[in-house]
Design a protein that fits this description.
Elements (H helix, E strand, L loop, with lengths): L1 H68 L3 E6 L4 E4 L1 H7 L3 H4 L36 E7 L5 E13 L2 E10 L1 H70 L6 H32 L5 E4 L1 H10 L1 H6 L3 E4 L4 E4 L1 H17 L8 E9 L2 E8 L31 H11 L4 E4 L6 E7 L12 E4 L5
Parallel strand pairs: 7-9
Antiparallel strand pairs: 1-2, 1-5, 3-4, 4-5, 6-8, 7-13, 9-10, 10-12, 11-12
Helix pairs in contact: 4-5, 5-9, 6-8, 8-9
Length: about 450
């Protein structure tokens, strides 16, 4: 009985020991797994830190490389104003090496306060993070090289916060060339302004002399033309007396001489009258006012009505605008141009004249086209010169002053006149200013014929 009880007790203790061993084994295994997980986490953290340190070193290397290869001088300054960093370009600009510049005061090489003119002053002592008016903007200051020479510099400063305090980064650029260019530009501008003033004064004096000369010339032309007509009348009168009273005493040659005297005197009288017309373009000019062009055109047609009827001329007027003009002179302009078209009409065609206008900018271009014999392009400029004729006197009448008067009238209005190429006949164009405050609307179009009531 006791043996059986002892065996059961031993068996129970053995079972308990096995349970405890199993439990301890599981606990040990769990601890080992935790340690393995901790080891893996630590290994990963070490790897991550190594990568971070490598990236940091690479970033620092890149930053240092950027600073060293920068085209501007890069300087770092501590909060007491002493230089702690100095790149290669700073050495080029100032002439001090990195070792020589280290520990120098920023105020020894840059006059931060322009009120201070001596290097090494306390002008740099007022730098404080977020408080200095020198920070975070581009400013121009005087800088000092190692040889004592001074030069203009462009400076920008910013704060670099640190764990213990702060530093300043300074970017410095030598702007000597830019300042020289600016100074040269100012000098050139001043010289240009001086020359412009001198030239303007010269032009004003020349214009004044030209105005005086024109006035004197116009007065001379008027007086001379007027005074010349008196002796001409005498010559023509006495020549006619000879012809009427002494014809029986003159042979055929004598009568021919008298006819030549009378014809020359009449031609001279016509030239003088044309010269008077030419001079009166300025002397009898009126103020420019808004004028509908159809009115002076109608007035010109009324004067030429009989001649236009005789030649069966058809005048077609398209929409004509309102312009700034001297109405009397524009009437004379139209009259001269229409007379030219009639004079140089084509013998095998019914004369047709077309007047039109087109707005170009603030000016109207007026065109007068005909179907006559036309103008050789090589004579386009010559026809507007005074007393210039393209034909012999026997072919066409006139003294070659009509288009010269037209040119003078248009110039007086601030425009220009020219001959243009045309498939048929002649084409004359001229420009007149449009009144800015007026509408550019035109009068109703109409076709004017020589046989119509004007």
């Amino acid at each position: 009985m006791n043996l059986e009880s002892t065996q059961r007790s031993v068996q129970t203790q053995k079972s308990t020991s096995e349970d405890e061993a199993s439990s301890r084994s599981r606990a040990l295994l769990s601890v080992m797994e935790d340690l393995q997980a901790e080891r893996e986490s630590l290994k990963a953290e070490i790897q991550r830190r190594c990568e971070t340190e490598a990236a940091l070193r690479q970033s620092e290397h890149r930053t240092a490389l950027i600073i060293e290869t920068a085209l501007d001088g890069v300087i770092t300054v501590n909060d007491s104003g002493h230089i702690t960093g100095w790149n290669d370009q700073a050495a080029v600009i100032f002439g001090w090496s990195r070792e020589q510049a280290s520990g120098m005061r920023i105020s020894e090489i840059i006059l931060l306060d322009e009120a201070e003119s001596r290097p090494g002053s306390d002008s740099g002592d007022h730098l404080h993070a977020g408080r200095s008016d020198l920070l975070n903007r581009r400013i121009e200051r005087t800088a000092i090289r190692s040889d004592g020479s001074r030069f203009p510099a462009e400076l920008s400063m910013s704060v670099l916060p640190l764990d213990a305090g702060f530093e300043f980064s300074c970017f410095v650029r030598d702007i000597t060339n830019r300042k020289n260019a600016e100074r040269l530009q100012l000098e050139m501008q001043a010289e240009l302004e001086r020359r412009v003033i001198e030239r303007t004064q010269e032009l004003e004096r020349a214009n004044e002399r030209l105005r005086n000369s024109n006035e004197e010339l116009q007065q001379f032309a008027y007086v001379a033309s007027h005074d010349l007509q008196t002796p001409l009348r005498g010559i023509m009168g006495f020549a006619q007396f000879l012809e009427s009273d002494y014809t029986p005493n003159l042979d055929e040659q004598g009568l021919e001489y008298i006819n030549r005297i009378v014809a020359s005197a009449k031609r001279m009288q016509t030239l003088i009258q044309d010269l008077l017309k030419f001079s009166r373009v300025q002397s009898l000019a009126s103020e420019l006012t808004p004028v509908w062009l159809d009115k002076p055109l109608s007035a010109a047609v009324a004067v030429l009505e009989s001649e236009m009827e005789k030649c069966s001329v058809e005048l077609i007027s398209e929409d004509l605008p309102r312009v700034l003009a001297d109405a009397a002179q524009i009437e004379q302009l139209f009259r001269n141009l229409i007379e030219n078209s009639i004079k140089y009409r084509h013998p095998e065609r019914r004369p047709q004249i077309r007047v039109s206008a087109i707005l170009e900018g603030d000016r109207w271009t007026i065109s007068i086209a005909d179907n006559g014999i036309g103008i050789d392009p090589k004579h386009f400029k010559r026809i507007f010169e005074i007393f210039k004729r393209l034909h012999a006197e026997g072919e066409y009448s006139g003294n070659g002053i009509g288009l010269a008067v037209c040119r003078r009238i248009v110039l007086r209005h601030g425009g220009r006149i020219w001959a243009d190429e045309s498939d048929v006949g002649a084409l004359i164009k001229f420009t007149l200013h449009s009144p800015k405050s007026l509408s550019s609307e035109s009068q109703p179009s109409k076709s004017v014929h020589a046989d119509e009531d004007q």
